[in-house]
Amino acid sequence: MDTDLSRPGVSLEEEPDESLTTADAHTLLEIAATHRIAVDVANDPIIMVDNEGKIALWNKAAEKLFGYPAHEALGRDVHALITPQRYLPASTQAFNHFKTTGEGAALGKTLELAGIRKGGTEFPLELSLAAESFQGKWVAVATVRDITAHKQAGLALQQSEAKFRAILDSSPVAHALSDAQGNVTLLNSAFIRAFGYTREDIPNLAAWWAKAYPDPEYSRRVKTVWRDHLEKAKREGIEFEPLEVNVYCKDGRVRTVLVSAVSLGDSSGDAHLAIFYDITERKVAEQQIELKIEDIAKVNAQLVAANQQLGHAQNQLLQSEKMASIGLLAAGVAHEINNPIGYVYSNLGTLEKYLTDIFAVVDKYEAAEHLIDCHTLEIEELRLFKAQIDLDYLREDIRSLLAESREGLMRVKKIVADLKDFSHTGSEEEWKWVDIHQGLESTLSVVWNELKYKCEVIKEYGQLPLIQCLPSQLNQVFMNLLVNAAQAIEERGVVTIRTGVADDQVWVEVGDTGKGIAPENMQRLFDPFFTTKPVGQGTGLGLSVSYSIVEKHHGRFEVNSVFGKDAQFRVWLPVRQTDEVAPA
Predict the structure, then answer these.
(1) Which residue has the higher pLDDT, 263 or 254?
(2) What CATH number is given to the structural domain containing 124?
(3) What pLDDT, in 10s, does the model give residues 196-233?
């Protein structure tokens, strides 16, 4: 046998255990010697215990860990040497069972136990046991590892985790921690206060999704976006982009939160810490602010509209004042013309009577002329003068001149009457039952000079009832339509005036064969100051004022046009106004 056994961990100075024969002991030592290189260079302590619990192998690492040199450890009872007192009863009982059966609960496993160093210091260790049958008896080989540093690291980790949990629990922001398997491992106090759920309510993420997002479609959308954000943050190495979601609480309330996440990777996968910022009150405040902004915008729009209406009304007032001034001037002119026309007409009648008398005398003289049978110089001169002046022609021509003069005076009187009818001065404007055709005729007389050189006027009047209206204002509408129709005709054309009735409304249409209206201008026809006429030829107020007058009468405009060909403006007016507008 090899007698060179002076290496650490094996000593011949110790007497072999009496329970073994000398040959047995030497055989064990021989086995140990055979493996001495592997045993001595091992980083972990290796201890072999014989069938009686005595130490038969004690390598260098064991010496270093426990503090006993090999010569002090070999042959000693392993339990008494390195096992804490509190483990002795159980260890002894387990070893007694092992040495007869080769069985034990610790075999083939790694256990966390405690050991005692030389000097009595206790420390944590990991113990791995293996059994081997030697000459019909069971021996045990133990591998030991000092886990003091591991335990200290674990304790530090536990302390760190405890601090981490304490910090999260004291945070006013809701936090939830889940592991890689989807189990919820932490809900801080703020989370429970915010949503009402405890870990018993949501032990895992599946329960959280079911309770927090009960609507399947909404839950699906949130899951999809959540997964995309996680993958993007992990892929690009960026922070998780917060999501705004609505969370159903345990008591049925719905809270709006911004949720973010931090990935906490470990060997088992990715755990996640979710952070919930409750923005419900902020959202409510934002909605209130939005409502206030909308209210302010509405008020502002109303102010803008009121300002536009005020400007429109001011423009209408100016236009009305202009029309009133024109009407007053027309009435004054009519009044002033009416006086001389009156006495001229009267004098013309008197003159006609006088001439009738004179011609009667002349007739009598002519009847008596053939009774005078003399040829005096005076008689001859009289006959010659009579022939020169052509008395018969004068007689007929004077009658024609008087008739034409009377007709001219009648025309002037009609114009004066139309002016007075158009202006309606001398009394406050009030609602009246009038004939629309009469208003059209008087307006035509006033604007005839604008029409007669450019167009032919065709009238297609229907049978209309009297309507309740403000006559002078409607005449202003007719005047604007007729003047616009004439101005739309560049050289020579036709202006057609049509009227009709449908149910309880009458309509008046003014059409022209002018250049029509461009499509882009159709929506702006009745805007104040909008005009397509050259500068100085239009104010852009005519149709705007007309629209307001028709609207005042509870009527409406219809416009049809073929650009480059013609245009028709039709005014619809109710026959009777409401009692509130025009009391009887």
Answers:
(1) 254
(2) 3.30.450.20
(3) 999 999 999 999 999 999 999 999 999 999 888 888 88
Q: Domain limits at 244? A: 169-278
Helix residue spans in 256-279 (DSSP H): none
CA gap 489, 446 in Å, rounded: 19
Q: Is residue 579 part of a domain?
A: no
What whole-number distance in Å separates Cα of residue 45 and Cα of residue 128? 11
Cα three-residue angle 507-509-513, rounded to 5 degrees: 170
> E strand or H helix at 345, and its extent?
helix 280-369
Say whether 428 sits in a helix, a strand or coil: coil
Q: Could you say which of 368, 403, 423 is where a domain stops? A: 423
Rounded CA-CA distance 265/230 in Å is 13
12: helix, strand or coil: coil
Phi/psi of residue 114, each to 5°? -130, 145
Q: Name the β-bridge partners of 494.
A: 456
Taking CA atoms, 37 is separated from 5, 9, 32, 127, 190, in Å, by 12, 11, 9, 22, 61
- Is residue 411 domain-shared with residue 340, that is, in the same domain? yes
Please give the Cα distance from 410 to 73 (Å, whole number): 156
Among 128, 95, 132, which Cα is nearest to 113's? 128
Please report which helix (H) or strand (E) contains residue 438, including its range: helix 436-451
Q: Which positions ≥6 away from 568 have C-beta within 8 Å? A: 509, 510, 511, 559, 560, 561
If asked whether residues 331 and 462 sit together in one domain, one would say no
Q: Is residue 163 part of a domain?
A: no
CA 345 to chain centre: 77
Look at residues 146, 179, 197 and tell me which one is the last residue of a structural domain: 146
CA distances from residue 296 to 36, 103, 286, 291 in whole angstroms, order as listed: 94, 89, 15, 8
The residues near 255 (Cβ < 8 Å, ≥ 6 apart) are 194, 195, 246, 247, 249, 278, 280
- Same-domain check for residues 544 and 563: yes
pTM for this model (two decimals):
0.39
What is the number of alpha carbons within 13 Å of residue 542 lying toward its C-beta? 18
Which residues sit opposite 6 in a β-bridge? none
pLDDT in tens, 449-499: 778 888 889 999 999 999 999 888 888 888 889 988 888 888 889 999 999
Give residue 315's identity as a one-letter amino acid code.
N
294 in any annotated domain:
no
Supply φ then ψ for residue 581, to 5 degrees.
-80, -50
Q: Are 38 and 77 found together in one domain?
A: yes
Give the number of other Cβ atoms within 10 Å of residue 65's Cβ: 20
Half-sphere exposure of 328 (CA within 13 A, CB side): 7
433: tokens are 């039952």
Cβ neighbours of residue 111 closer than 8 Å, sequence gap 6 or more: 126, 127, 128, 129
Q: Which residues contact 7 (CB under 8 A, 6 or more apart)?
A: 33, 36, 40
Count the neighbouring beta carbons within 10 Å of the beta carbon of residue 321: 10
Based on the domain organization, do 476 and 553 belong to the same domain?
yes
Q: Do the domain assignments include residue 159?
A: no
Q: Which of 572, 546, 9 is nearest to 315 (CA)?
A: 546
